[in-house]
Amino acid sequence: MTVVTTLPDRRLLLVHAHPDDESIGTGSTMAHYAATGAHVTLVTCTLGEEGEIHVPELAGLAAAEADQLGGYRVAELAAACAELGVTDHRFLGGAGRYRDSGMMGLSTNQHPRAFWQADLDEAAGYLLATIREVRPQVVITYDENGFYGHPDHIQAHRVTMRAVELAAREGLAPAKVYWTAMPQSVLEAGMTHFEEASDNPFAGISDATELPFCTPDKEIAARIDATEQHAAKEAAMRAHATQIPATSWLYSIAGNFGAEFMGVEYFTLAVGTKGPGSGPYGWESDLFAGLGVGESPHLSSVSAAGHR
């Protein structure tokens, strides 16, 4: 049986660990490509059941109480995706298959459904099914350390890279795989700006390289300037109200740096060939650079034969 789906020429797949990760880390990039006609697919690996709750009246949803936070966050994620213009969102293996593992070293890492405990090939198989269907040219996820060391982020990295490997065996591998990153120069500028602020998010840190997500500028491959979408990113973040309080330092930085903070996102290139770029390090301004895929939303047929 052959299933033929008509999708835009440019197809982008993002794999994130929990609801809200997509908005904080890649919200502007997602909104930018959705607005320019690309097909943007978001795969979220857990429901975020172990997240903190910053809305007091919803405290009863916590894992230690009714354990219903995950279900509530499904709605928050749907609202965030609507703000970003993303219509194709899936949970890895279906909603609730994998549970939020909590921070590294907690007993929640050992929960029978914890994503940290997921069988790698099984989880990668679920993602492979999406790759077969969508045929993305570009995939985004985290680096080996999950950007900052959360077990679910690390597992999302492992699952994504394994799925890409399996897709390559079928001739379906994406042309590029990017990992989210933050340039050292950007972090240093932020540290300087906030060193006298009462809500300094870098308090106690004097060297940017101490931060686990600090990346030397020369290792950055792409800088996506989606400042025209900074408002969409902020709106998407506000949709995740249980996780990001209105007083969050993220909004404080946004108030100081505005569109530059909310609208510009950076990536390293893990798989594929870097396309044309600019500046001292040749940073790409388009994740599809060098792939010969135009920006117009022309449609193409994607065939998924014999894989269902």
UniProtKB/TrEMBL annotation:
Pfam families: PIG-L
Residues the entry annotates as binding Zn(2+): 18, 21, 153
UniProt keyword annotation of Heme present: no
Catalytic activity: 1D-myo-inositol 2-acetamido-2-deoxy-alpha-D-glucopyranoside + H2O = 1D-myo-inositol 2-amino-2-deoxy-alpha-D-glucopyranoside + acetate
Biological process terms in GO annotation: mycothiol biosynthetic process
Co-factor remark: Binds 1 zinc ion per subunit.
Alphabetic keyword roster: Hydrolase, Metal-binding, Zinc
Cofactor names: Zn(2+)
InterPro entries: GlcNAc_PI_deacetylase-related, LmbE-like_dom_sf, Mycothiol_biosynthesis_MshB
UniProt family annotation: Belongs to the MshB deacetylase family.
Chain's role: Catalyzes the deacetylation of 1D-myo-inositol 2-acetamido-2-deoxy-alpha-D-glucopyranoside (GlcNAc-Ins) in the mycothiol biosynthesis pathway.
Name of the protein in question: 1D-myo-inositol 2-acetamido-2-deoxy-alpha-D-glucopyranoside deacetylase
Protein species of origin: Micromonospora zingiberis
Gene giving rise to this polypeptide: mshB
